[in-house]
Write a structure and sequence with these properties.
The protein is mainly β. The chain has two domains: 106 residues, SARS coronavirus X4 (Immunoglobulin-like), CATH 2.60.40.1550; 144 residues, Immunoglobulins (Immunoglobulin-like). Strands 9, 10, 11, 14, 16 and 19 form a six-stranded mixed beta sheet that branches. Strands 12, 13, 15, 17 and 18 form a five-stranded antiparallel beta sheet that branches. A hairpin with a 2-residue loop joins strand 9 and strand 10. The protein is elongated, with a radius of gyration of 29 Å.
């Protein structure tokens, strides 16, 4: 019986000690170390500093991003956000309720791999109703931490960084070299040529040029890349495989009269069997000056490998 009382006393003492420690922890301010020293704390140089954003109930705040929006997360039900109709890079934000008191947050990931975070507060009259964000390349603020992260990878690009893809396309466009001289088409005063094919990390880059020698603007409807049979027997359906571009640089919708413009497209890497070739089509909107040329496998396998980038 004495042993039982002794055991109960020890248990009661343990509970008393634990409760005392718990009360001390509640009374003392938190040091931020929730794991008793068994983990490394996150230092401020690892933090992506958020932007301050004010929203209200009766007005809509628009945030313009430098690339298409791929992901949006709202910190609470007090916020409403959606892409503006007909756009890919404009986010409209407003308050779902009037005068919400607790601060919330908003996170956005864009197609170029950028990550943006905002601390959101309610304001009766927000000063900034239209906000334009900048990407990492053009953000000239010299700080010791990232303004927005650019290490986010997209599924369709595989192991290639979206930032690097963009830099490669920009470099190709800026250097403006003519690596291929025999592929193109010329009709109705429009010349459509392939200036080069480049390769890097399982992606192909097509450098295209469109020269409008007429006085009538050329309105681009769409550009199409498709693999088709070289010869199609009569009464046999043509087998087509469309290759969707993953990214585009300087993708213009209008080429004015007497102007020459260039575009760069990133496509997944592929090769062609002997009986097939790649057709690159350019269609004019509400017009008939369509252009097309073919690319053989010999042109693809001679794609110039990109090792050095020269971008200013």
């Amino acid at each position: 019986m004495k042993q039982i009382f002794l055991t109960l006393a020890l248990v009661a003492g343990m509970f008393t000690t634990a409760n005392a420690q718990e009360n001390v922890q509640k009374d003392s301010p938190s040091t931020g170390d929730l794991f008793n020293g068994f983990t490394r704390p996150l230092t401020f140089d690892r933090m992506i500093p958020p932007y301050a954003l004010e929203i209200t109930f009766n007005k809509t705040v628009h945030v313009i991003f430098p690339a298409a929006i791929r992901y949006v997360d709202l910190g609470s039900a007090d916020l409403l956000a959606a892409k503006a109709d007909g756009t890919e890079n404009v986010l409209r934000v407003k308050a779902a309720v009037r005068d919400f008191s607790r601060e919330s947050n908003l996170s956005v990931i864009t197609e170029d791999g950028s990550y943006y975070i905002f601390n959101v507060k309610y304001a009766d009259e927000p000063v900034k109703l239209s906000v334009e964000m900048t990407d990492f390349i053009h953000d000239g603020e010299a700080v010791n931490r990232p303004n927005n992260a650019l290490d986010i990878y997209m599924q369709e690009l595989g192991q290639e960084s979206p930032l690097l893809v963009r830099l490669i396309m920009k470099s190709i466009h800026k250097n403006d070299r003519r690596e291929i001289k025999h592929v193109g088409s010329k009709r109705f005063g429009i010349q459509y040529t392939l200036k080069g094919v480049y390769s890097h990390n399982s992606l192909l880059y097509f450098h295209l040029q469109l020269k409008n020698s007429t006085n009538v603007p050329f309105n681009v409807d769409f550009i199409n890349f498709k693999i088709v049979d070289k010869k199609v027997a009569k009464r046999t359906a043509m087998q087509e495989q469309v290759v969707q571009p993953l990214r585009a640089y300087n993708h213009l919708t209008v080429i004015e009269g007497r102007r020459t413009e260039r575009m760069v497209f990133a496509l997944p890497q592929f090769t062609l069997p002997d009986d097939k070739h790649l057709i690159v089509e350019l269609h004019e909107q509400n017009g008939g000056r369509h252009q097309r040329f073919t690319v053989d496998n010999a042109d693809l396998i001679r794609a110039k490998v990109i090792n050095d980038l020269k971008v200013e």
